[in-house]
Amino acid sequence: MRYATKALFTLSAITLTSLCGCSQGSGDPQDELAGPCVIVPREPVLTLLSASDTRWGNDIPSLHLSNISFTSPGGVTTTLDLAGLEQASIDPLVQNITLDPDAELLVCTLPCALFFAPGEYAFTASSNGYAESEISVQANYAVYEGGCPGYYDVGTDITITLDPGPAEGIILHTETPATPEN
């Protein structure tokens, strides 16, 4: 009786695992694997390709991103709190992003890629010598390969332009003092 109970338990576990697994119905043994159905992003949903200044079109090599918020397709808005985060907590698929926890901002060395959930992202973009710019973008994936497992791919790419801000430490015009006459 003891062996029959153990065999029944093992058979039940195998059956439950098979029922909870995924199948693509192709008949290929590789597609008939048991396990949870996982759908993963192959790349971040948002890539900042480049930034330039509006006056001369010069490339801006890096951006500071702050005041970051996300609104899900269901309308729930979340603000990203950078205080207390550590660089190690940033997902490895995120590209060219470093965390400046003291300034509570992300530093994006362009091009950079971040975020994985489709939805609306809003943030402040700035760089040394440029005025801050409020950015809002609807980020989505262009490719969804369904089935089990499945994946999302080809996120939204954007470019940003910033207005030159007041120059710091640069003297644009000086008055020449009058020379005393002898």
Question: Can you give keywords for this protein?
Answer:
three-stranded mixed β-sheet; 1 helix; 10% helix; disordered N terminus; 182 residues; 11 strands; mainly beta
What does this structure look like?
There is one protein chain. The chain is mostly beta strands and 182 residues long. The protein has a domain at 41-160. The chain contains one helix and eleven strands; from the N terminus they run H-E-E-E-E-E-E-E-E-E-E-E. It has one helix spanning 2-20; strands at residues 39-41, 46-53, 62-71, 77-79, 95-100, 105-114, 119-126, 133-139, 143-145, 150-153, 156-162. Strands 2, 3, 4, 5, 6, 7, 8 and 11 form an eight-stranded mixed β-sheet that branches. Strands 1-10-9 form a three-stranded mixed β-sheet, with no helix packed on it. The longest helix is centred in the N-terminal third of the chain and has 19 residues, at 2-20. The chain is globular, with a radius of gyration of 27 Å. The model is unreliable at 1-24 and 167-177 (pLDDT under 50).
